[in-house]
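Async update (no meeting this week)

Hi team, since we skipped the sync, here's where things stand on the single-chain job. The sequence we agreed to prioritize is pasted below, unchanged from the tracker. I ran it this morning and attached the output directly underneath so nobody has to dig for it. Comments welcome in thread, and please keep replies under the output.
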Amino acid sequence: VASYTAKFDEATWTFFTHIGMDGAYFRDRLGGMGAVEQHITYSRELHPGDCVRVSTEVAEVRERVITYRHEMTEITRGEVAAVCTITAVHIDTATRRASPFPEEVFRRASAMLKDGSSGR
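Output:
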């Protein structure tokens, strides 16, 4: 279970970077993220030596909240091993309160929406 969770955590940091929230963003802009809900569904067991790919899609993005879904696939057989859905809130780390995503981050996340709609 810890290995699956670690892979999903790595995928989250890659996803955040892709939408414009890299390490510099978190250090310099006083922006942060807080997970408020997380669900993992395990579909098949992985074994040592199995290679996986984690793909990410955005399910919903609102002014301060984003829900995204990671799908872990064992690449040799193409079988889904686990799915992780996370809802997170954008936080101003100085005030420790929810704050709106910067426009560019919101735009990039919206471009990844599964159905093409956003809530801003």
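Quick observations from my side:
The chain is about 25% helix and 40% strand.
The helical segments are 2-18, 23-28, 103-111.
Reply here if anything looks off.
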